[in-house]
Design goal:
With 496 residues, the chain is of the alpha/beta class. It is built from 22 helices and 15 strands. The strands form four sheets. The protein has a six-stranded mixed sheet, sandwiched between helices. The chain has a five-stranded parallel sheet with strand order 8-5-6-7-15, with helices on both faces.
């Protein structure tokens, strides 16, 4: 069965997967969504016997139906190779009734590697399939992890350039150093004065600027996106939820068909939306627990049905979640409204103009699989310390948001279902915050010293990404105002 894609705002319909991946964002500003979610018609016993690569093929061939078997296998083989420091790209660590799904064993030690390792192959394959003769300019905003993972994925990929914007002073020191030291003649990263929402809004405005698109086209360029708004980012993320469920069964943690919870630390909503798509494909899910930090706009939304971004923006120790406009939520809004593009457009217009919208009771009912929780900075520190003391296991600050939120959820509900917590970043990426939570005596040491201390504390070897970072040369130094983003792009491309 061929799966085609529509825009959430109705302007484009019946688009192939490869066309949707190439475009990233629809011409009307909407996001591409599959017209239907195909069933993963494979029993769990069979799934449990598949490798991560084999699982990826089975999931992706059902959603990216205009890619041939040979093309998909080429993309998967090249993506999930020795770049990952564990055999299956991801791994599970059991702690009581919770299992942490470690998604940070890739090149940039964050979960974004799971999708951004394959996106360049999907995109360049899609370009060939569609006779694309222009150079693809990947334009993206990052709250910390997407930028580095995207640049690492696209670095020196023929026929592509990548320009990343990040909020100056809005990412961790390690995240910033990873980005500004990125190699590759086709890579560029620029700091924006402001927060992530300023950078993300700027990127969306540029994507929707027809005049800019015309200028780029005449110069031989075309925009695409590596953000989770690109369906080529979202589909590979579905894989690890399917894989983790099968591994839970294989390890005897659950029975065939048993419903489990997924807890996902959430900012832009793409990661937890992928878990939702996995459930629609047939994975047995009890609850999807959307975990927020103190920027808890999503917690309020799932509690009240009102999305309101008009609040203080708070910088936290989990910066990748410091987001007030969760772009991927639009896909869920569209579906919960019965694929009503007009209703979706109306709500997104309200968000754009007034910063607030409210969904109907029927839409709330259609989102019943989701629930929200949030955690304070203190609760996150407590979670890090708890898992270290009780299980000799070290988690990062974003995973701690999920762990602390899950604790609150179980205290409220008494739900004893087996649970997978998405562990989205290596603790090395936030070593200072992690060690501070374990014991404040570590505060006195420098950032570089803390890497070695964390290695001793966690009884793990330094990831290659950290070793490389120690002596890396700073290559990207630009800092601009949000209003200067368009001109910065044109300059970097040599157009002005």
């Amino acid at each position: 069965m061929q799966i085609l894609y529509d825009s959430t705002r109705g302007g484009e319909k019946n688009v192939t997967a490869s066309q949707a991946i190439l475009k990233g964002l629809a011409d009307d500003g909407g996001l591409f969504v599959p017209q239907s979610i195909p069933a993963l018609d494979i029993d769990v016993q069979t799934l449990a016997g598949l490798t991560y690569k084999e699982t990826a093929f089975e999931v992706m061939r059902r959603l990216l139906t205009d890619f041939t078997e040979e093309e998909l296998k080429y993309c998967i083989e090249n993506a999930y190779d020795e770049k990952f420091e564990v055999p299956q790209a991801a791994q599970l660590r059991d702690c009581g009734r919770e299992s942490f799904l470690e998604l940070y064993h890739g090149k940039t030690i964050a979960f974004k590697d799971m999708a951004l390792s394959i996106l360049p192959y999907l995109m360049t394959t899609a370009a060939r399939k569609n006779g694309m003769d222009k150079e693809i300019v990947i334009l993206t905003a990052t709250s910390g992890d997407t930028g580095k993972a995207a640049m690492a994925g696209f670095a020196d990929v023929p026929g592509t350039r990548i320009i990343v914007f990040y909020p100056k002073d809005g990412v961790s020191p390690v995240q910033e150093r990873q980005m500004v030291t990125q190699k590759g003649d086709n890579t560029c990263v620029i700091a924006v004065k402001g927060n992530f929402d300023d950078a993300q809004t700027g990127v969306k405005i540029i994507f929707n600027d027809k005049e800019t698109a015309r200028i780029l086209g005449e110069a031989g360029f075309v925009f695409s996106s590596a953000n989770s708004i690109n369906i080529g980012r979202l589909v590979p993320q579905v894989v690890y939820y399917v894989w983790s469920y099968a591994q839970m069964f294989k390890n005897g943690r659950i029975k065939d068909g048993e419903k489990i919870n997924f807890v996902v630390p959430t900012g832009n909503f793409g990661n937890i939306l992928a878990a939702y798509y996995a459930s629609k494909m047939g994975i047995s899910v009890n609850r999807l627990i959307c975990a927020s930090n103190v920027n808890n706009v999503l917690f309020d939304f799932f509690s009240t049905g009102v999305y309101d971004k008009n609040r203080e923006f708070i910088l936290t120790s989990s910066p990748s979640m410091d987001i007030l406009v969760s772009s991927n939520l639009e896909r869920l809004i569209y579906e919960s409204a019965g694929n009503d593009a007009e209703k979706c457009s109306e709500l997104m217009a309200k968000l754009r103009t007034g910063g607030v919208y409210e969904i109907t009771d029927e839409m709330k009912k259609n989102m019943s699989l989701f629930t929200g929780e949030w955690a304070s900075e203190e609760e996150c520190d407590e979670a890090i310390k708890k898992y270290y003391n009780e299980y000799d296991y070290v988690i990062d600050t974003h995973t701690a948001v999920a762990a602390a939120a899950y604790k609150k959820y179980t205290e409220k509900t008494g739900d004893g279902s087996m649970t997978v917590i998405a562990s989205t970043a290596s603790p090395y990426k936030f070593a200072r915050s992690v060690l501070h939570a374990i014991d404040e005596k570590y505060d006195q040491y420098s950032d570089m010293e803390q890497f070695d201390i964390l290695s001793e504390v966690s009884k793990t070897k330094l990831p290659d990404a950290i070793i490389e970072l120690k002596n890396a040369e700073v290559r990207h130094k630009d800092v601009i105002e949000a209003g200067e983003m368009k001109d910065a792009i044109l300059k970097k491309l040599g157009i002005m």
